[in-house]
Design goal:
261 residues; Rossmann fold; 6-stranded parallel beta sheet; 5-stranded parallel beta sheet
Length: 261
């Protein structure tokens, strides 16, 4: 691996890195405390577009992880920034929840089902056939198709749930139109996060638990990458991929020593 600059900016995935099945991963609380005390800018990233950053901050606080709202970056926020850059003060028909609708409102977008510029698909626990049908018809009439993330399933206490990627596939099958996915593994998510913290790729690290989203996005954005083994990817699976993380560690607890390194 080529020698890199010291890490001055930190990006970290949330689920599988700091949180697992609704509980903090051992060492996550100390990692967040040490990172906050270091004064180094950091962001917690998530492809989940359901919640606002304030909602997520409160949910993390309830399990002992004190992350301020401004240190959270979601695929909904990245999507809203992308749309505001592409078509300022545009309009969108949205399938999603407060995290996405709030982000788009704050970006100056009008939410409408009357000839919108975009159909924007995000995460929701209540996908309805009528809203999906409406999205299909609007795309057929020329609306551009954007989705927050390509994840096909999401977790729940009862088991897997269909997520944005699965619903997007259904809309694509009906329309023949592929969505533009903003969230990981699109490196756009990383670059937008870098812009928020004011970081530079050569001195920023990305921590994730998935080779196919977190790590590949970090690699493509030129970041130092740290794979932790508390989520989706197993150690024996790493060699299957054509790209490699900079580090493979057992958990977030093993990353703590790198903060002041």
């Amino acid at each position: 691996m080529t020698e890199r600059k010291p890490i001055e900016y930190w990006l970290s995935d949330m689920d599988g890195v700091l949180v697992h099945e609704g509980r903090p991963v051992p060492g996550a609380d100390e990692f967040v405390r040490r990172l906050s005390a270091s004064g180094k800018p950091f962001l917690i990233l998530t492809n989940n577009s359901i919640y606002t950053r304030r909602d997520l901050s409160a949910r993390l606080s309830a399990i002992g992880l004190e992350v301020p709202p401004e240190a959270i970056w979601t695929s909904a926020l990245a999507a809203a920034r992308f749309l505001a850059d592409q078509r300022p003060e545009g309009s969108a028909y949205v399938i999603g929840e407060a995290g996405l609708t709030t982000a788009l409102h704050e970006a100056g977008y009008v939410l409408t089902d009357l000839d919108p510029d975009y159909v924007v698909l995000g995460e929701t626990r209540t996908y309805s056939f009528s809203s999906i049908t409406r999205a299909i018809r609007l795309i057929d009439r020329g609306a551009r198709f954007v989705a927050t993330n390509p994840d096909p399933i999401g977790p729940s206490l009862e088991g897997s749930l269909p997520a944005t990627g699965a619903v997007a596939a259904m809309i694509t099958k009906a329309t023949g139109v592929e969505p533009y996915f903003v969230g990981k593994p699109n490196p756009l998510m990383m670059r937008s996060a870098l812009n928020v913290v004011g970081g530079h790729s050569e001195s920023t690290a990305m921590i994730g638990d998935r080779m196919d989203t977190d790590i590949v996005a970090g690699v493509e954005a030129g970041l130092e990458t740290i794979l932790v083994l508390t989520g989706v990817t197993r150690r024996e699976q790493v060699e299957r991929f054509p790209f490699r993380p900079s580090h493979v560690l057992a958990s977030i607890a093993d990353v703590i020593g790198m903060i002041d390194g």
